[in-house]
Amino acid sequence: MKGLYYGGPGQLAWLLHRVAGIGILLFLILHIVDIFLASFGPEVFNKLLFIYHSPVFKPLIAMLVFGVVYHALNGLRIIIIDFWPRMTVYQKPLWVGATAISLLVTLVSIVAMI
Amino acid sequence: MDATRSQPALELEERTPQPRGVGPRARPSGGFELWSWYFMRVSGAVLLVLAVFHLLWMHFKIGLNNITFQTIVERWTGPLGPFWRTYDWALLVFALTHGMNGARWLVNDYVRHPGWNLALKGGLGVLYALLLILGSYVILTFQWPPPGARG
Fold it and tell me: pTM for the whole thing?
């Protein structure tokens, strides 16, 4: 893995961003297929809804919520740093803020799901 | 922390040029990869609104446990149908393109063997086209009850 990010500040931010991106893409593929199957009517679609309703999948949905909000806010942090390089000084507090908001939204979504 | 805030420019000078691999992904020098680099930032900003609003709407306005087939019928064939179809199609195009380009970056980062690299990116391209067609088809043509069922 030489040549990639290799220790140092921001590595956790980078790793979480990458893992969240992969998770979101996998869900997006599933989601496009499940909504496509709605073309075949309610019998087919309502059978698929266990993905969204079953308690088994709730932890995965909570992880998805965290992933989406984190990837969005950390992505905003990357945009800010890329286009206003002076903001690099604040990269750490920006990351803490993005992560804190993501955790908060995830907690609220868990309460709403139960 | 206070010291860095009072003199941000000085701190920045100390940090740049950065050591290997630390900091934001370097801006490509030109061509398709520079275009791709800008696209990820522009589409990311768009998705920050479209995807996060979609997620918050489905979780907190509708509620995951209330979603049924009827939710889709009301969303796409109700009075706001054209708005939601436009919204959902924009979300599909931006999210899928952003995600698949991210996957392409992953392949370039981790798969150094030229043959596998090309094969995986070819597979991603096929998957991208297929999912774009499936998603666009259902968003743009969904009707319920289906036209044939009445006659």
Answer: 0.85
